[in-house]
DNA sequence: TATTTTTTTTAGACTTGTCTAAATTAATTC
DNA sequence: GAATTAATTTAGACAAGTCTAAAAAAAATA
């Protein structure tokens, strides 16, 4: 099939296109932890294989088959993360690295059985949607907590920052997926959000709020 | 840690030493699907890292740390095979290739959790013992069905050939792990073994018998 | 628009693991 | 024990993926 490395590039391009509508050489280098020169080489190779559309100096997009592969990797990543948390009882901040390896296990039959074993979960532990076996991804229209209006209530549905530090912070402050919160105001001093989670009231920084994705 | 490739060499050497008491360049080449020249290169590298004892033209043995790594890979392979069969309902002839990939997932915490999730199984689907988290491997003294005496009874405990063809044959003839069999004689024509499995009587070739491992 | 800065690409080199072909060592046979 | 055969190693090359440094193109700025 495709190499581990090719899969990682396709995945990185997929995520970049989703987040910023563009995928440039430098962005891809940053995302894959390589240098721009290496990226250029790989882009030529992926274009050769018709997995990306590439014209030099122009950035890239995925072809249909490139996107199919990328979504397959994302599906595997998220299903394995779900497995690790739901079945093996890892915490949500512990699973990323393992899933980075597991997502390259090639068998699609394996991943489909795993999906079935877990009852076809819709979302991974960070609230990201799990593509189905045909590559379809459900789209919830979430918004950053930063954009909630005063007295607006919503449910924490996903997080935009997957770093262990952020996830541990959320865990500690009970800002976990499924929790319902209400914005009761802003602090004068630093415009931090004042939240109410039905038990008590507390503040979160604008940076934290930005990375909390809310289903209104 | 160690590369995928290094791990495969160590595993191959481990299995060869177990089976034939020796691991020569050509044997390793055959086991890893490479050429002798490539093996020599890798042996130098593994010796450099003190994972094997190597003197040229002399074959190799594993050092303690080499063996520790090899046993770790075997543990992962067998636990994943157990998972695939026990939890994901794959057949015992379908899991080898997937386990060949899964055995290289690096996290030992993951494999220990998987072990616990499955209730610390002792044997994999082919009857091979699963090393514990300290690398200890239980040793049942099995013997090939070929060496059973007339009227001797035993229980099928493992198989020496893991090929899908062999496993499917056993499945079809109900010669699966746990079955109790009795040797009631030999055919005059080709010395095939006449077996009785408490329900009916049938013959198996000496080749098949050789690969059936029995707990007497 | 001309110049500077940034981004991207090219050129050439390195590493890992592989190969073939040739040379060397060990084992076998006469 | 000498000659042949088999096994192993060396030498040199290649592919994948990476790098640094330099060149080229695009974008930003004056």
Short description:
2 copies of one chain form a homodimer. Chain A is of the alpha+beta class. The first copy, chain A, is built from 8 helices and 8 strands; from the N terminus they run αααββαααββαβββαβ.
Explain the overall architecture.
The structure is a homodimer of 216-residue chains. In chain A, the strands form two sheets. The first copy, chain A, has a six-stranded antiparallel beta sheet. In chain A, strands 1-2 form a two-stranded antiparallel ribbon. Chain A has eight helices and eight strands. Chain A is globular, with a radius of gyration of 19 Å. Helix content of chain A is 43%, strand content 16%. The mean pLDDT of chain A is 96. Among the domains of chain A are: 4-62, Orthogonal Bundle (Arc Repressor Mutant, subunit A), CATH 1.10.10.10; 143-215, SH3 type barrels, CATH 2.30.30.90. In chain A, helix 1 packs across helix 4, helix 2 (25-32) packs across helix 3 (36-48) and helix 4 crosses helix 5 (96-102). With 216 residues, chain A is an alpha+beta fold. At the A-B interface, helix 5 and helix 6 of A face helix 5 and helix 6 of B. Chain A binds a DNA duplex (30 and 30 nucleotides) through residues 3, 5, 24-26, 34-42, 45, 56-57.
């Amino acid at each position: 099939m495709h190499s581990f490395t090719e899969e990682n590039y396709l995945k990185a391009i997929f995520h970049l296109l989703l987040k910023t509508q563009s995928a440039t050489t430098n962005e891809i280098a940053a995302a894959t932890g390589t240098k721009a020169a290496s990226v250029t080489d790989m882009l030529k190779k992926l274009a050769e294989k018709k997995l990306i559309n590439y014209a030099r100096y122009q950035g890239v997009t995925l072809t249909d088959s490139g996107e199919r592969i990328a979504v397959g990797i994302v599906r595997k990543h998220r299903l394995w993360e779900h497995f690790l948390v739901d079945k093996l009882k890892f915490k949500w901040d512990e699973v990323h690295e393992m899933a980075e390896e597991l997502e390259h296990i090639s068998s699609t039959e394996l991943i489909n059985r795993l999906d079935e074993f877990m009852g076809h979960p819709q979302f991974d532990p960070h609230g990201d949607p799990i593509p189905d076996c045909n590559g379809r991804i459900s789209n919830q229209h979430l918004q950053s907590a930063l954009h909630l209006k005063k007295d607006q209530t919503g449910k924490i549905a996903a997080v935009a920052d997957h770093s262990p530090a952020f996830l541990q912070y959320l865990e500690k402050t009970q800002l976990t997926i499924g929790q319902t919160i209400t914005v009761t105001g802003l602090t004068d001093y630093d415009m931090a959000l004042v939240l109410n989670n039905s038990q008590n009231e507390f503040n979160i920084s604008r940076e934290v709020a930005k990375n909390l994705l809310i289903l209104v």
